Every structure is written in C-alpha cells, then in structure tokens.
Amino acid sequence: MTRHPHTRTTRRKVIGALAAALLCTAGLAAPAVAAPKPTSPTPADGLALTPPMGFNNWNSTHCGADFDEAMVKGIADLFVAKGLKAAGYRYVNLDDCWALPERDADGKLVPDPARFPDGIKAVADYVHGKGLKLGIYTSAGTKTCNEAGFPGGLGHEYSDAQQFADWGVDYLKYDNCNNQGVDARQRYTTMRDALRATGRPIVLSICEWGENKPWEWAADVGQLWRTTGDISDSWGSMVSILKQNLPLAPYAGPGHWNDPDMLEVGNGGMTDTEYRSHFSMWSVMAAPLLIGTDLRKASPATFDILDNKEVIAVDQDPLGKQGTVVSTEDGRWVVAKEMADGSRAVALFNESGSPRRIATSAGAVGLPKAPAYTLRDLWQHRSYNTAGTISALVPAHGTVLVRVAADRHWAANPPAVELGLDGSPFTEPGSTSALTTSVTDLGRTAAGKVSVSLTGPAGWTVRATSPTKAPALTTGRALRTSWKVSAPEGTPRGAYDLTLKASYRSPTGTRAESAATLTLTVADPPPAGSSYLSDLPWLSTSNGWGPVERDMSNGETAAGDGHPITVGGVVYAKGLGTHAQSEVDYYTGKACEKVTADVGVDDEEAANGTVSFEVWADGTKVASTGVLTTDMAAQPLTADVTGAEVVRLVVTDGGDGITSDHGDWANARITC
Hints:
Blueprint: H1 8-11, H2 16-22, E1 23-24, E2 27-28, E3 53-56, H3 58-61, H4 69-81, H5 84-87, E4 91-93, H6 119-129, E5 133-139, H7 157-167, E6 171-175, H8 184-198, E7 203-206, E8 224-226, H9 235-245, E9 257-259, H10 272-284, E10 289-291, H11 300-306, H12 309-315, E11 324-329, E12 332-338, E13 344-350, E14 356-361, E15 373-377, E16 382-386, E17 389-394, E18 399-405, E19 417-422, E20 426-427, E21 432-441, E22 447-455, E23 461-464, E24 469-473, E25 478-486, E26 494-505, E27 511-522, E28 530-532, E29 540-542, E30 549-550, E31 565-567, E32 570-572, E33 575-579, E34 582-587, E35 594-601, E36 610-617, E37 620-629, E38 635-640, E39 646-652, E40 662-671
Parallel strand pairs: 3-4, 3-10, 4-5, 5-6, 6-7, 7-8, 8-9, 20-27
Antiparallel strand pairs: 1-2, 11-12, 12-13, 13-18, 14-17, 15-16, 15-18, 19-21, 21-25, 22-24, 22-26, 23-25, 26-27, 28-40, 29-34, 30-33, 31-32, 33-40, 34-39, 35-38, 35-40, 36-37, 36-39
Helix pairs in contact: 7-8, 9-10, 10-11, 10-12
C-alpha cells in the first residue's frame, strides 16, 4: 500500500487481524495460517521466476514535486552507470500521483503533464532503451490512496490494463484504497484477467496489505503480494514487518512471492549496520528488492549495500525458497535458506541493542554430515572452513550473513575463527574497565601463529594484561586475553568503537585475518534522587513510527510533531510518547532502585490502539501491564530495578499489529 502521512493511521487499521496471528514480541508465534496448497514451481506465464528487483519512488518522494519524468529517467541512468542493472535490478516503478485527478471524456487515464510532459509511453521507451522495465501504480478501488483522489482501477480494469500495455508498462502495483467493500479476490482476479487480455506480460503486484491473507489464494492471481502494512524508515517498523513475514515461508516460490514492502536502505532513518540487516533479511526471505531511496542523492555506503552481488544471489536463487527460522531467543535469530546448489544461506540476526554471540550448526540448518564445510561471509567476501559450528559475535542490530556448503574443497580455506568479548559495554569518563576478548578456532584445521590486538579511539588507553599470542589453536580451542580500557577525563558521552583483530595462519601457511568492531559506551548514571526520564539522556531508542518523543505524544512522522500527552482525558506535562514496537534504553550504572509511570494509549487514537508496557532490568523483565486499549484510563506501573546497569522501557503491540499503537509513559520517573 502506498503511504500518505495524512491517511496512514486510518489505513493501517486493516492489518490488525493479520498481525495478531503472526506476530509476538519475544519472537515468532505459531503462525495461524493453513497449510499451503501446492503451487507450480514454474508458472506458465514465466513472470517473476525470481523476486522482482528494481526501484519505486514512494519511500523517498511521496507525491513531492521531485517525482517527475526527470527523476525516472535519472534513476534509469543510474541503474546502468552504477552497475545496478548488472546486479539484477530491472524495474523502474512509478507510484501514486503520476496521473491527473480526472479521467478524460473517454474514461481514459491522463498522465500529469507537469510531471510527465512527454507522457508515460515516452518514459517507458526511455527506460526500455536502457534494457530496463517500467512499472506503474493504481488502486483496486474507485480512487487511489492519495487525498487528491486520483482515479482507481475498480470498474475500469480492462480499459486501464490496455492503456498500460499500450504505453509499454511491465509491472503494475495494485493498491487497496477506496475498494467500496468489493471482495478482494474478485477485484485482483479481474485485473489479472484484464492484464492477460492485453497480450503483454505484466507483473501484478497485489498491494492489499495482507488484509485478506492473499498468500492463501493469490498464487495464480499475481506474482507477489504484500503481507503487511506499510514499512517506515525505522528499526522498529522493519523488525515488526520481518516478524510478520517470516512465518509465511511455505507460500513463497517462483512466480509467487511474499512481499514485506519496499526497501528503506539509504533514507536516513537507520544506521548502515541496520540497513545491512534490512537488506540481508529481505534477501534471506526471498523478498522483492525494490529500492526506495532517491539514488541521485545516495551515499557510497548505500550503493555498497544495494550492490552486494553475493547477498543479491541469495535473494535471486532459482530454487525460490524463502528462509525459515531455525531458532530465536532473547533477540538472537538464526534464519536459514535452502539454495539450489544444496548450500544454505544463514543469517545470524541480532535484534537486541548490544553485541550478542549467535550460534548454530551445519546440521541445524539442514546440511548433511561432512568432515568440514566451506563458510563464505557474504559481507566480508571471505571464505573459511568450519568443523560445523556457525557462530559470530554480532553487533547490536547487526546481521552476519554466510553461505555454508558441504564442499570437498573446504581444506583450501583457512579455518574460521570466532571473536568474542566479555565485560560491560559501558564505562564512565576517567574510569578503567576490564574486558576479556577471545579468539576461538571453529575450523577443522588448526590456526597457527595466532595474535590478537585491541585498539580504541585516539587518547584512550588500551592495555593487555595477559598473553596476546598463541602458537596454535586446534578446533574449539581459544586464546583469551584480558584488557584494561580507560576513557580519558572529559570524554563526551556517547558510543565509541574499539577494533578487535585476530591474525593467524592456515596449515598451508596462508595468512588470514578476522576483525570485529566492539562498542563501548561512555555514560553517566542518573543523578541521585528522583528524576523524570524525559529529562535524562537515553542510550538508544527504536520506534514503530516516527521518533520517541519527550513530553509529547508520538506524531508518527517527524520529531516534535506530537501533542500533549493525554490518557483517559488526563493531560500530562511530562513523559515519553512512543509507538509500538518501541524500546527506550537508559544507563543506570547499578545506582537506581525504582521506575514509576502512568501508562496507556494516547487519547489521540480514537480506536484500535492495543499496547502492553514492560520494564526490563539487564535483560530481565521486572514489570508489565498486560494489554491496554484506547478506552482505558492510565494504569500505574512500578518496577524494581535495583542493581541494574541498563533499564529498558518496552511497548509491544498487544499481539494484533501496530495500528494506532501510541503508547505513553506519562510522568515516567526513576529513583536513584
């Protein structure tokens, strides 16, 4: 579905029932879906035998003035110039607002002459001239989703389809707004038939937001179907959608794909680490890869992510299997995807806000028994051998993506090593922290002449207090090194990177290296006494829509767009405004005892809001409310956080998706 800030809350109400069946906060609930009917692995129409790859303007431009013919042509040019076409990206897709609000006297759609002065056919010809394909948008309703009321396709399917074919369109995104209550399957099947009647092969992207479980009926209607409501450019939104889409793996395959919405990579709301996770997990899920950022403004880091051909190969694997969850616990996810050559793509995904060791095995991901395996790191572009363990220290919100095979040539690669870290990830200015690093041989062969180093920011003191070298490490053996790390007095508060490097040699004498970035956060505990949490610095936040707000509700878009916090008719001057799924972390330095707040759904949501509030102390849940709704008064919440180093405030979706879930921590205070 196409997102419009002024209509988003109302239109996202449709996804609640779907998410109730598929999403739970701690991980995956048992999916409430029927066993899929067998579908042909090679559809007769030959369309979308691998997940479509391309571009859609909506996430970066919406209906802004910069969405026009020049932009579309510029994106096509960049696909060629930047190697994205060579990487597999093909479709350049127009979203809403390309047409005039009224049809002509013959009932035909009319391109907006201000945006597309040469018409859509001329744009299609230009795109085709680059060896690419053009996509277009409309809605399976009387109007599209924009408040300007652009014409929808309901009742005009055959006429509109023929126009699209005459223009040279190759892909249709068919939205769900203003559908007049007409049965979804009927509406989308009619457009399928209309497109087929043109004789032109056109991919049909069913964008009905998962409201009617299209995975159960749309395999012979369209080539892909949205499984959720709209994505936003935030960690919380991306993770929520990921969790809803993962259980639907049995329904995906060549010519019929689960679509968890377009990519947000490069739009600025997440870090590069988070965007790599986004891209990795969409690829493991065999999701369509539709770039959602304006490539004319994209950074080199964005192009590096979008152009990672080894990750793209996971998404585009011709077997067409969607990855499935091997394990999930405490924010540590293992998702594996069977590949056509018998290998497995394995994502070690860290949902949490701190580095975590995530581990699995070759057997657990479905590989046969073998003396050893070849393990290829798809972001580092390096190959190793492993005796069977697949593990890594994964950074906060990060993903390690590997491809593992029972390959008889495994011994040609150096052994894989796992880097580890023990110790608090927090320090205070002028103090000394004790850390312990480890280098563990995961390979079938020995790692020889092992050495390890740890370096910090300029001005920091990093000193080893135990050996940093070992003559050799055999399978499963580790070199553990103790370190003293000091941040100088006056170090500004914030997160700082330390680099851990291991160097070693394989039995053939090949020199190998492994490196990891460790984060140490310089922070102060809250002052003694009672303080409003909205007056204190937080370590990190994540939110379903928009940012976490101080002393106002969440307005879903930009910082500061909320209203006075109001729950049950009571207005609060202080507090935190969030939108599920939300987490807010505070460093408390083992110096605090109690958190109190009045919590509830903000009154600005008239219906459908369902949330649950939780307080966590160093990874242990110490207080929760159960599900609260929009018609309930604020509930008092008290949590004992004695001795905790980190306190986390969590708002979940109540089990039914994040629609209207504006959760307020009114008068939230901490006593230290």
